[in-house]
């Protein structure tokens, strides 16, 4: 996507983004320039530093105390995970978007060090700007007297909560089924009845949203669930739901899996409201 188009999309939300400071660390010079240009065109963002060196980046992060750091995994000097670790030691309120190749190991390492989101390369500029918006819309404004939230940021939006579950049970964000599943769960939370007719209701709705076919949606979702189960994280899956849901090779159907997570989301919401 062209930078101008992405920025036009993003600038409509300037009321949300007030005086936010951003630090960019990326070893790919072309991508660094593109990100810097896109973010700089938004009036609500100030790109205070952009570079490709991890050690220099850490110094600037400690000096600037930014609202957001976008950190590539492969940097000169200290790598991305080292940078994220350094941020979390001192700058608890800085939101972090890690960027890297499709690697479960790398993603899990970045998230365990304290990243709020892992953006898989290659990514669209609009997709990157949407993640920036999501992370910063409830962030306090930069400046003197800035109060930092706890280092372990809790997911705020429904999409973030669903993504956290996917990460914990081993569904990687680079497969197509990840986005389809997340959309399906969100639709089911908002319209519980839609899961009762998954073939003629939910799959077509997801397909329309992503510009694909219902059969491809069904196959991709099934594949995503199989990926999680084949990794053997049954304990993690059971831990998400606070009870022993599945044993060994047992696998839920697409509708069972979607309904199970959607029910958990609704229950959590009711408990928070109470």
CATH architectural category of the largest domain: 3-Layer(aba) Sandwich
Report the principal-axis shape.
elongated
Largest sheet: 5 strands, parallel
Oligomer: single chain
Q: Output the number of helix runs.
A: 12
- Structural category is alpha/beta
How many individual β-strands? Answer: 5
Q: CATH fold name of the largest domain, please? A: Rossmann fold
Helix % is 40-55%
Instruction: Round the Cα radius of gyration to an integer and report it.
Output: 19 Å
Strand content: 5-15%
Residue windows where pLDDT falls under 50 for at least 5 positions: 5-17, 139-155
User: Mean pLDDT, rounded to whole units?
Assistant: 79
Which descriptors apply to this entry?
Arc Repressor Mutant, subunit A; 2 domains; elongated; Rossmann fold; alpha/beta; single chain; 274 residues
Give an overview of the whole structure:
- By secondary structure, the protein is α/β, with parallel strands linked by helices.
- It folds into 2 domains: 3-136, Response regulator (Rossmann fold, 3-Layer(aba) Sandwich); 158-273, Arc Repressor Mutant, subunit A.
- Helix content is 55%, strand content 10%.
- The protein has 12 helices and 5 strands.
- The protein has helices spanning 3-11, 29-40, 54-64, 80-90, 104-113, 125-136, 158-169, 176-190, 198-210, 214-230, 234-241, 254-273; strands at residues 20-25, 45-51, 68-72, 95-100, 117-120.
- Strands 2-1-3-4-5 form a 5-stranded parallel sheet, with helices on both faces.
- Helix 4 (80-90) links the parallel strand 3 and strand 4 (95-100).
- The protein is elongated.
């Amino acid at each position: 996507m062209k930078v101008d188009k992405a920025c036009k999309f993003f600038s409509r939300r300037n009321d949300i983004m007030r005086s936010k400071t951003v630090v960019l660390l990326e070893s790919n010079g072309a991508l660094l320039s593109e990100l810097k240009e896109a973010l700089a065109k938004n009036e609500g963002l100030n790109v205070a530093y952009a570079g490709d060196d991890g050690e220099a980046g850490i110094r600037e992060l400690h000096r600037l105390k930014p609202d957001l750091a976008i950190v590539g995994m492969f940097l000169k000097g200290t790598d991305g995970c080292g940078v994220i670790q350094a941020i979390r030691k001192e700058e608890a309120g800085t939101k972090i978007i890690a960027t890297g190749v499709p690697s479960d190991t790398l993603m899990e390492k970045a998230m365990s060090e304290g990243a709020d989101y892992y953006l898989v390369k290659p990514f669209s500029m609009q997709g990157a700007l949407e993640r920036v918006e999501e992370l910063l819309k409830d962030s306090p404004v930069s400046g003197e007297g800035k109060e930092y939230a706890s280092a372990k940021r809790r997911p705020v939006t429904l999409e973030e909560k669903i993504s956290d579950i996917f990460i914990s049970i081993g569904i990687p964000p680079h497969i197509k089924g990840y986005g389809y599943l997340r959309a399906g769960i969100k639709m089911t939370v908002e319209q519980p009845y839609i899961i009762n007719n998954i073939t003629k209701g939910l799959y077509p709705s997801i397909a329309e949203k992503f510009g694909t076919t219902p059969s491809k949606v069904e196959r991709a979702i099934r594949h995503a669930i199989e990926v999680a189960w084949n990794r053997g994280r049954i304990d993690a899956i059971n831990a998400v739901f606070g009870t022993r849901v599945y044993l060994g090779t047992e696998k839920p159907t697409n509708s069972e899996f979607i309904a199970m997570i959607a029910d958990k989301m609704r229950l959590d919401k009711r408990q928070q409201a109470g």
